[in-house]
Design brief:
By secondary structure, the protein is α/β, with parallel strands linked by helices. It has two domains: 161 residues, VC0802-like, CATH 3.30.2130; 220 residues, Rossmann fold (3-Layer(aba) Sandwich), CATH 3.40.50. Helices cover 37% and strands 22% of the residues. The chain has 13 helices and 16 strands. Strands 1, 2, 3, 4, 5, 6, 7, 8 and 9 form a nine-stranded mixed β-sheet that branches. β2 and β3 form a beta hairpin. The radius of gyration is 26 Å and the shape is elongated. 41% of the residues are buried.
């Protein structure tokens, strides 16, 4: 068995645009599997066929392919001719040697010109497996599903599918800029936008040297994990501590959190425009903290002139944690750190800020100058998978 058969779901609904989405998916699969001794990547009738050369490491191929957005499921497979006898011979040759409690056959006749109906093929092949191994047939909850896919001119067989990441291929839905903290929520928000085909530029606000570098190290680790999904990432590290200090001098304590967030939005929007991103993304969850009440969300959003997406807005914490565990960021996010949210934070922040009072308070700030200063001091780092990440620039980008 030297093939991988990968299936997609949503791409099949794209009509006349399907070839474009499929080309992008093939390109992403090739990039994700770079260096793993992969042969050709074909697109036979509603699926992908990936040829594994002799030295290809299946475990690594499987790990990487499971993170490629657009792939719904996949399986290591063998290729055979359109002959039921030959299909049975190939399946018996490659069946796992260990005993299996139960199995069932699942035949998909994608090419309806094949003259034998799927149920008849299932019975014929299943009978051969029972005769050779004595395994029990269980149509409802089998321990193993032996799949056969009949296509024009060829057939594939496999022994169970592996779940993929689903969604749309990276690069098919434009660019977004994600405000990435070191917490649990914002990496999940980034991942959810990536899963819809968006390329995410990451923006992190830190308070070094007022606080330690821990938050920066955490977001680098988070960026590395997220890059394993979208393959190339730019992380913008924005120094925010001095800006916060100046805000504390001029802004009443109860309004500071909202003003902090409005300044972050302004800076992130400038970064987004330079990165050709069309929207900002945050990990906001309604009512979770003071800045995430409906009133404060509205006032904060008013500082932006591009859309702000909040993919987690109606989720509860357990749902977000489940996603974080799935994508691999949870263990990093729960490491204690000191981020800019803990610096100069008032004891009683406003939960129902009004736009008029916020705009009046901000008149005491040189907003444009503060934004320009933060941008000038922003560091940019690039991460690639499977290439080792490296810093690429410091300065305005």
């Amino acid at each position: 068995m030297n093939r991988v058969i990968a299936h997609y779901q949503e791409l099949a609904l794209k009509g006349k645009n399907r070839p474009w989405f499929l080309r992008r998916l093939v390109r992403n699969v090739r990039a994700a599997l770079a260096g793993l001794d992969i042969g050709d990547v074909r697109t036979p009738m509603g699926r992908l066929e990936i040829v594994l050369r002799s030295d290809a490491a299946w475990n690594e191929v499987s790990e990487r392919l499971a993170r490629v957005f657009g792939v719904a499921n996949f399986a290591m497979a063998g290729r055979t001719t359109l002959d039921v006898q030959a299909m049975g011979d190939a399946i018996l040759r490659d069946l796992p040697t260990e005993q299996v409690a139960s199995f069932r056959m699942a035949v998909r006749r994608a090419d309806k010109r094949f003259p034998i109906p799927s149920p008849d093929v299932e019975r014929a092949l299943g009978t051969r497996v029972v005769g050779a191994r004595g395994w029990k047939v269980d149509l409802d909850r089998p321990a193993m599903v032996i799949g056969v896919e009949i296509l024009p001119g060829e057939a594939f067989y496999h022994f169970g599918k592996i779940r993929g990441s689903g969604g749309l291929p990276t690069g098919t839905a434009g660019r977004v800029a994600v405000l990435l903290s070191g917490g649990i929520d914002s990496p999940v928000a980034a991942w959810r936008m990536m899963r819809r085909g968006s390329v995410a530029t990451l923006v992190h606000f830190h308070s070094y040297p007022f606080l330690s570098r821990t938050s920066q190290e955490k977001v680098r680790e988070l960026a590395r994990v997220l890059t394993r999904y979208q393959l190339h990432t730019r992380l913008h590290l924005v120094p925010f501590g001095e800006l916060q200090r100046e805000i504390t001098v001029s802004i009443p304590g109860s309004l500071r959190v909202v003003v902090y967030r409005r300044m972050m939005v302004r800076i992130a929007e400038r970064i987004a425009r330079r990165a050709h991103a069309q929207a900002l993304v945050t990990g906001d969850v309604i009512g979770q903290v003071a800045s995430q009440t409906l009133e404060n969300i509205a006032v904060i959003e008013a500082a932006a002139s591009i859309p702000i997406f909040r993919p987690l807005i109606g989720m509860d914490k357990e749902e977000i944690i489940a996603d974080a565990r799935r994508l691999g960021t949870y263990a990093i996010s729960i490491v204690p750190d000191e981020d800019c949210c803990t610096l100069f934070t008032p004891r009683h922040p406003a939960t129902q800020a009004r736009s008029g009072e916020i705009e009046e308070a901000e008149r005491s700030l040189a907003v444009a100058e503060l934004v320009e200063r933060a941008l000038a001091e922003t560091a940019v780092e690039r991460f690639d998978f499977p290439v080792v990440p490296s810093a690429i620039a410091v300065g305005p980008h």
